[in-house]
Amino acid sequence: MRVLGYARRRVLFLPVGLLSVVVLAFLLVNALPGNPVGVIAGPAAGPEELAEIERRLGLDRPLWERFVDYLGGLVRGDLGSSYYTDRPILSEILRFAPATLELVILSLIVAAVLGVGLGTLGAYHKGRLADRGSRFVVTTFQSIPDFFLALLLIYLCFYLAGWAPAPVGRLGLMDEPPPAVTGALLVDSLIAGDMTVFRSAVAHSMLPVLTLGIYYSAYFARSTYASLVPALESKQVEFARACGLPERTVLAYAFRQARTPILTYGGILLAALLGGAAIIETIFSWGGFGEWAIDSILQLDMPAVQGFILAAGLGTLLAFTALDILVAVLDPRVRYD
Amino acid sequence: MSAPRQALSRPTNTGQGADREPRLLEVSGLTTRFDTPDGLVHAVNGVDFHVDRAEIVGVVGESGCGKSVTIRSILGLVRPPGRVVEGTARFNGVDLLGLRAAELRRLRGAEIGFIAQNPFSALNPVMRIHRQFANILAAHGIRSDAIARDRARDALADVGIAGPDRVLDGYAHQLSGGMAQRVVIAMAMLLNPAFVIADEPTTGLDLTVQRQILDLIRGLVQQHGRSMLLVTHDLGVVAQYCDRVVVMYAGKVIEHGSVRDVLTSPQHPYTQALVRAVPRPGHPLVHLTGRLPDLVDYPAGCPFQARCPHAFEPCGQVFPEPTTSASGRTYWCHLSQEREAAR
Question: Measured between alpha carbons, how far is A104 from A116 in angstroms, rounded to an integer?
Answer without folding.
Answer: 17
